[in-house]
Write a structure and sequence with these properties.
Mean pLDDT: 95
Radius of gyration: 24 Å
Strand order of the largest sheet: 4-3-2-1-5-6-7
C-alpha cells in the first residue's frame, strides 16, 4: 500500500516507516538444544501532525489502509504539541550494514556453533549448565515522509549469547558474554576463550577484607560506571531536567582520560548506519571529551523540545515512536596493556560483572551492587575468585580520578565498547 499520498491530504506533515525482517534463532538450554525456529516480521508505522499535534500508530500483518489512517488521525487528536519538522532528503555517510552471505548460512551451522560452545565450556567445568542463544536476522527498513525523504536500508545482524551456571551447595558461579556483528565471523571463538579463562580463574578461591582499595573493572564490569553516563547523555533525560549533566555542558566533569564517542559510522556494526530511523544523517560525535561534557543524544522530538537539532540518534521499533538512543558508544581506550596494569597492582579487586545492574540510583550516578564474579589481585597476579563482595560509589565522584584505562577494549551488549578501567580507590564490602 502507498499510504503517503493519502496521509499528505489529511495531515500537515506525515511519515511512513516499514520493516520487513526474517530472523532465525537456535537456542540451547542446560546443555541441550531447545529451539530452532524462523519467523518473519512485517509491519508499518505512521506518524502525522495535525494542528501541531503529533500522532502515531503501527500495525503488523494485514490491515486495511483506511483503518490505519483512522487510527493515526485519532492519535493526533490527543498527541503531544511539538514543533517537529520531518527532515528533507540529505546524504549520509556510506556505511556497511548488510552482509548478503549471512542469509545463506544454513540453520545446521548455527546448531554446530551452539554445540561447539556447550562442549568447550563444559570441558573446563563438566558440572556446568550452559545456555546459548544464536540469532541471525536479515531485513530492510524504509522511510518516506512529506518533506521528500525516501530512504531504504538493508540490515543484517548475527549474535551469539553464551552463559554458564554452576551450582555447588551455596556456591553459584555465573559467567556470560556475547558477540554481535553483521556477519558470521570467528569472533565468537575469542569470546568463548575469554569465558573459559574466567571459569578457570574462578576455580581458585580467595578472600578479601572490607576497605577502600584499587578496583579494576573488566569491560563487562565497567557497565556499572558506564550506565549512569548513558542515562545522563540521553536527550529525553536532558529535556526532562533529570540528567546530572543537563546544565554542565562545557564543564570538566570526569578525569581527562575519559572520552566517550557516539559513532554510527563504524563499518560492520549492527547499530551503525548512514541515517537514523527518522531519516536524519548520522555522524560521529563526542559526548565526553577529555572529561568535559560536550553533548547529548537527540531525536527529532527531543531536539524540538530543546530548541536544537537532532543528532541523528532517533531509534525505534515497530510499535513505539522514535526515541533518542546511542548507536555505538565507544569509551576511548588508553595506552597501557592490561598485563602491565595488573603487574603494577599490589592489592585490589577485579570486577568482572555485577548483579542487578542499575541498582542504587543510576540517574544520580550512584551505584551499589553485589558482585556476580570478581577476583582478588595480589602482587600483580589474579590469585582467585572472591564471593560475597559488594561495591558502592558515585561516578560523579569516583570518575574524577581514573588511574588507568587499558589499551584492550571489548564490545559489551553489541553496541558499547569499553576498556578495562582502574579506579585508584573504591569502597569494597566483604559480606563473608
Amino acid at each position: 500500500m502507498n499510504l503517503l499520498p493519502t496521509l499528505q491530504k489529511r495531515t500537515e506533515q506525515a511519515e511512513v516507516y516499514t520493516i520487513d525482517r526474517e530472523s532465525t534463532t537456535v537456542s540451547f538450554e542446560a546443555n541441550e538444544m531447545k529451539t530452532a525456529k524462523t519467523q518473519e516480521t512485517q509491519g508499518v508505522a505512521l506518524r502525522g501532525i495535525i494542528d501541531g499535534r503529533l500522532g502515531f500508530t503501527a500495525a503488523s500483518g494485514q490491515i486495511e489502509e483506511s483503518e490505519l489512517v483512522a487510527n493515526l488521525l485519532a492519535s493526533a487528536r490527543y498527541g503531544d504539541e511539538v514543533s517537529i519538522a520531518f527532515p528533507e532528503k540529505a546524504p549520509g555517510p556510506e556505511i556497511e550494514t548488510y552482509d548478503p552471505t549471512l542469509a545463506q548460512v544454513p540453520m545446521a551451522r548455527f546448531v554446530e556453533i551452539g554445540r561447539e560452545i556447550v562442549d568447550a565450556l563444559r570441558s573446563v567445568d563438566p558440572d556446568a549448565k550452559v545456555d546459548v542463544d544464536i540469532e541471525r536476522s536479515v531485513g530492510r527498513f524504509t522511510l518516506q515522509n512529506s518533506a521528500g525523504n525516501d530512504l531504504s536500508q538493508q540490515l543484517s545482524h548475527f549474535s551469539v549469547q553464551m552463559s554458564l551456571e554452576r551450582v555447588r551447595g551455596d556456591d553459584v558461579l555465573m559467567v556470560y558474554d556475547s558477540v554481535h556483528d553483521i556477519s558470521l565471523t570467528e569472533d565468537y571463538r575469542q569470546t568463548l576463550e575469554r569465558l573459559q579463562e574466567k571459569v578457570e580463574r574462578a576455580k581458585r578461591p580467595a578472600t578479601l577484607a572490607s576497605g577502600r582499595m584499587p578496583v579494576l573493572f573488566s569491560p563487562v564490569g565497567a557497565m556499572v560506571v558506564a550506565l549512569p553516563i548513558m542515562l545522563a547523555v540521553n536527550g529525553e533525560n536532558v529535556q526532562r531536567g533529570v540528567s546530572p549533566l543537563s546544565d554542565r555542558q562545557g564543564e570538566q566533569v570526569f578525569d581527562p582520560s575519559i572520552t566517550l564517542w557516539d559513532d554510527p559510522t563504524l563499518p560492520g556494526r549492527p547499530s551503525s548506519g548512514g541515517h537514523d530511523r527518522e531519516g536524519v544523517p548520522c555522524h560521529r560525535k563526542a559526548l565526553i571529551a577529555d572529561g568535559v561534557s560536550e553533548g547529548f543524544l537527540y531525536d527529532l522530538k527531543t531536539a524540538a523540545l530543546m530548541d536544537t537539532e537532532s543528532t541523528g540518534n532517533g531509534s525505534r521499533n515497530l510499535f513505539a515512536p522514535p526515541s533518542p538512543s546511542p548507536s555505538n558508544l565507544v569509551l576511548q581506550a588508553g595506552s597501557t596493556p592490561l598485563a602491565d596494569i595488573l603487574g603494577d597492582m599490589e592489592h585490589g579487586l577485579l570486577v568482572d560483572h555485577v548483579l542487578g545492574l542499575g541498582q542504587g540510583n543510576p540517574m544520580s550516578g550512584a551505584f551499589s551492587n553485589t558482585l556476580g564474579l570478581a577476583y582478588v589481585i595480589d602482587e600483580g597476579e589474579i590469585v582467585g575468585r572472591v564471593k560475597d563482595i559488594s561495591i558502592a560509589g558515585n561516578i560523579y565522584e569516583d570518575l574524577r580520578e581514573v588511574a588507568t584505562l587499558s589499551e584492550e577494549s571489548h564490545w559489551v551488549y553489541g553496541q558499547i565498547r569499553l576498556p578495562y578501567i582502574l579506579l585508584p580507590e573504591l569502597n569494597v564490602v566483604s559480606q563473608g
